């Protein structure tokens, strides 16, 4: 098993574990790579998993040029060049927007694309009714300036609302922050700015990678309708919805989510080949073979 624990490249904190095809995991706003721990345990005997703290999140540093999904995608691309020549990519929420940018810009490196709770445009507009109301995003930004910790906590609670096992999922999200570190205020402010202003719809035609878009039935951050519209707009997009899940189906429905990934990415463990029985000859055919052997034996004896 290949393991790389706590390496930092280009200011990004990276962990690598497991054996198999490379799969890169990009987390969402305010979280860090610890949110993937249960999924990593589930998949590490089928995939080589590369988890990355986004700029300013967890143990990755923040820089003035990291404010857009495109800039962050390029930084991640530079980091991955040192780790993997070709990989599949899983992006969750804000990480999904970065994954879309990366897949559009470097199609030769991305094998397959999985987008979870993702959308091409977070904010609603006249031509995009599936997004979050702009005034809600504005209130989040104002709240972030006045009460950082309460804003993050409220956002975590919104992510699990309506989900099966919501209290357990919320505890896992909070634990990832306690165990690995919170995001910087600058990174969070830039992330909210992305939520308010980013529109990736013009780039979707350039994403030629086969893509699976996974939505939670009760997602309050990214509506299933937004994820479905995203899948429909991708040249090779496919949409699926997980019942009774919210914004983090990889936590609330780990087994179901893992099976979806394995089926789409082709990383399922091969089953041992079934033993094939030799077909039994019919009695008459067996008798002919025996008689033929006896005749040949007699001929050889008479020639001596």
End-to-end Cα distance, whole Å, is: 65 Å
Globally, the shape reads globular
Low-confidence stretches at least 5 residues in length (pLDDT < 50)?
Answer: 268-299
Looking across the biggest beta sheet, what order are the strands in? 1-2-4-3-5-6-7-8
Helical percentage: 40-55%
> What fold name stands as the CATH topology?
Rossmann fold
How many structural domains in the coordinates?
Answer: 1
Superfamily (CATH H level) name: Alpha/Beta hydrolase fold, catalytic domain
Order of helices and strands: EEEHEHEHEHHHHEHEHHH
Number of helices: 11
Largest sheet: 8 strands, mixed
The percent range for strand residues is 15-25%
Could you say which structural class the secondary elements and strand pairing correspond to?
alpha/beta
Describe the model.
- With 304 residues, the protein is of the alpha/beta class.
- The chain has a single domain, classed as 3-Layer(aba) Sandwich (Rossmann fold).
- It has eleven helices and eight strands.
- The protein has an eight-stranded mixed sheet, sandwiched between helices.
- Strand 7, helix 8 and strand 8 form a beta-alpha-beta unit.
- The radius of gyration is 26 Å and the shape is globular.
- It starts with a strand and ends with a helix.
- About 11% of the residues have low confidence.
């Amino acid at each position: 098993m290949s393991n790389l624990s706590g390496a930092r490249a280009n200011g990004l904190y990276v962990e690598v574990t497991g054996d198999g095809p490379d799969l890169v995991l990009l987390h969402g706003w305010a979280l860090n790579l610890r949110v993937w721990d249960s999924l990593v345990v589930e998949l590490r005997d089928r995939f080589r998993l590369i988890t990355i703290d986004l700029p300013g999140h967890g143990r990755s540093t923040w820089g003035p040029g990291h404010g857009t999904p495109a800039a962050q995608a390029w930084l991640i691309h530079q980091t991955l060049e040192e780790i993997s020549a070709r990989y599949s990519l899983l992006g969750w929420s804000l990480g999904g927007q970065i994954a879309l940018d990366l897949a559009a810009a470097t199609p030769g490196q991305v094998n397959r694309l999985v987008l979870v709770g993702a959308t091409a445009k977070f904010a609603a507009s006249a031509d995009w009714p599936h997004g979050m109301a702009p005034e809600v995003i504005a209130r989040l930004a104002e709240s972030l300036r006045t009460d950082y910790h309460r804003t993050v906590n409220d956002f975590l609670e919104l992510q699990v609302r309506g989900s099966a096992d919501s209290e357990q999922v919320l505890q896992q999200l909070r634990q990832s922050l306690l165990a690995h570190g919170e995001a910087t205020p600058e990174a969070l402010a830039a992330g909210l700015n992305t939520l308010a202003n980013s529109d990736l719809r013009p780039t979707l035609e350039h994403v030629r990678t086969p893509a699976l878009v996974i939505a939670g039935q009760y997602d309050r951050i990214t509506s299933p309708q937004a994820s479905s519209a995203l899948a429909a707009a991708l040249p090779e997009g496919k949409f699926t919805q997980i019942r009774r899940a919210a914004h983090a189906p990889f936590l609330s429905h780990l087994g179901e989510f893992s099976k979806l990934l394995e089926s789409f990415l082709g990383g399922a463990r091969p089953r041992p080949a079934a033993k094939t029985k030799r077909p039994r000859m019919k009695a008459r055919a067996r008798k002919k073979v025996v008689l033929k052997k006896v005749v040949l034996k007699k001929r050889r004896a008479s020639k001596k």
